[in-house]
Amino acid sequence: MAKILEVRGLHAQYGPTRVLHGIDFSVDEGGITTILGANGAGKTTTLRAVCGMVKTQGDISLGGARIEGKATESIVRLGVAHVPDGRGTFVNLSVEENLRLGAYTRSDKAEVAADFERMFGYFPRLKERFRQQAGLLSGGEQQMLAVSRALMLRPRLLLLDEPSFGLAPRIVQELFEIFRAINQQDRVSMLLVEQNAALALKLADTAYLLETGRVVISGTADAIRSDEAIRRSYLGY
Amino acid sequence: MNVLLHQVLSGLATGGIYASVALALVMIYQATHLVNFAQGELAMFSTYISWSLIQAGMPYWAAFFITVALSFALGVLIERVIVQPVENAPILSVVIVFIGLLVIMNSLAGWIFSYTIKPFPSPFPTAPLFGNSYVSSHELGSIGITLVVLLLVFAFFRFTPLGLAMRAAAQNPVSSRLVGVRVGWMLALGWGLAAAIGSIAGMMVAPTVFLEPNMMAGILLYAFAAALLGGIDSPGGAVLGGFIVGVLENVVGSLLGTELKLTVALVLIVGVLVVKPSGLFGKVHITRV
User: In whole angstroms, what separates CA A51 from the centre of its chain?
Assistant: First the structure.
């Protein structure tokens, strides 16, 4: 199967601190890959490395073209959207302006307007708060805003950093339903980092387990989900 | 009463100049959290460019718009060539770069155009408008132009995608990159805009203070007082602060004598920093340590 993202021998470091020690992983075209692991395993760094936010070594290919070493904004313009750790809200701007920024690189005005309506369909709360300052939204609402802002880019690849963080369980269920719908209808490929392993494995087709910057286990999501030993020792459920 | 009215009106005229320069200061402060001490000298240099164009026989308004465009380009160039390499340097290094820029622009202007004081033309008629005796045509015209500039700047930031991207880049560079905004260029554009606004302020004030390399020194001080009074991170506050400082300076000057004019600015700066460091409309920054 064609890969939208293929990563080989990825190293990453913050200053002198090495965080990733040569990891390999890939995301199928139209597929969902999840990266699981404990705090500090390097999950967030992996996502940051893909979109050029940290210093890296190794090969990163997007749809066959090498992107390592490119500026973040150039990688984004190739169709990679990122729902970052900490949500990345523009707190002093309105909800509307946050969404407009998500579509900043697009020039198809009519389609952008339609996408606004689509986001309101997914998250009616954002419509209620359309004119409000984004910093005044609750944590959960800001998470919805971060997901919507990323989707406004019409990405080919969506990087999701703990999208369930800070959300009520019922809303998390809805959010993951939305991810599935977007993946199936719009063929958006996803790379998902999640603490909630059960949820992530249900959504994803491929999974990697990261431990202190190394891939220790990889396989199809189904295989990992049904392997009791892995589930007990690594995933804790 | 008539004297006071006259002072208030001409205070509004100079206040408009302070407001423009203060706005230029705030724009760069918002993006970099640093005060550009060279802002006034940039405006002075732009005014010399316009003077040269007019001397070469160009009509006033043609020279005006070409100067604004050239100043914009100069601002962008300075950011790309001089400021960008010290982007991640310690604050003090950047401040020294700004002060160096101030001294260089000042000396360059003196070297090229000499330190002799030159008259600078006003585009407005010499006779007062509508036969009033309170305010000269140049003062009224300069208030008008200032208001148009402020309105255009406001509309640009409020209603255009590029304006939105510039605000976003100033507030949250990391998230801005993640939506594809070229943050480095937004900073350069900010410098360009600030230089363009400053050039208009320079051309509007030059007919009154006359053109010489040090003409913006006092004005930068007033503009700094205005920006602090309004809140150094609030564009609207800086503009209002500019008008307040202009009027205050003129009224105090007429009541207590003109020697005390510059003191007003210094008292305001110290007063604001002591009583309300965030200014009238600025954000109070609270940091957990």
Answer: 11
> C-alpha angle with apex A54: A51 to A59, nearest 5 degrees?
65
For the beta carbon of residue B32, count every other beta carbon within 10 angstroms. 19
Domain edges within chain B: 21-216
A162: CB partners within 8 A, 6+ apart: A44, A85, A193, A194, A195
Whether A88 has its CB under 8 Å from any CB of chain B: the answer is yes
C-alpha dist (Å) from residue B15 to A194, B118, B229:
56, 23, 13
Average pLDDT over residues B241-246: 93
Read off the pLDDT of residues A177-193 as tens digits, 9 standing for 90 and up: 999 999 998 899 999 99
- Closest CB from B171, B179, B182 relative to A102: B179
Closest residue in chain A to residue B179, using alpha carbons only: A102
In which residue are the tokens 């073209």 written?
A: A65
Cα(B50)–Cα(B122) distance, rounded to whole angstroms? Answer: 12
A84 chain-B contacts, CB cut-off 8 A: 174-175, 178
Task: Quickly count: other Cβ atoms within 10 Å of residue B61's Cβ.
Answer: 9
pLDDT digits (tens, 9 = 90+) for B58-85: 999 999 999 999 999 999 999 999 998 9
β-strand partners of A217:
A209
- The CATH label, of 3.40.50.720, 1.10.3720.10, 3.40.50.300, 3.40.50.12780, for the domain at A1-79+157-164+193-237 is 3.40.50.300
Q: Does B177 touch chain A (CB under 8 A)?
A: yes
Ranges of residues in chain A with a pLDDT under 50 are none
State how far the Cα of B229 lies from the Cα of B234, in Å rounded to an integer.
Answer: 10
d(CA B254, CA B247): 11
Contact A168, A17 (CB under 8 A): no
| Helices assigned H by DSSP within chain B | 2-32, 39-55, 60-78, 91-113, 137-159, 161-171, 173-178, 183-209, 217-230, 235-256, 261-275
CA separation for the pair B46, A96 (Å, rounded): 38
Q: Provide the shortest C-alpha distance from residue B182 to chain A (in Å).
A: 6
Provide the β-strand partners of residue A83: A160
Distance of CA B231 to the CA centre of its chain: 15
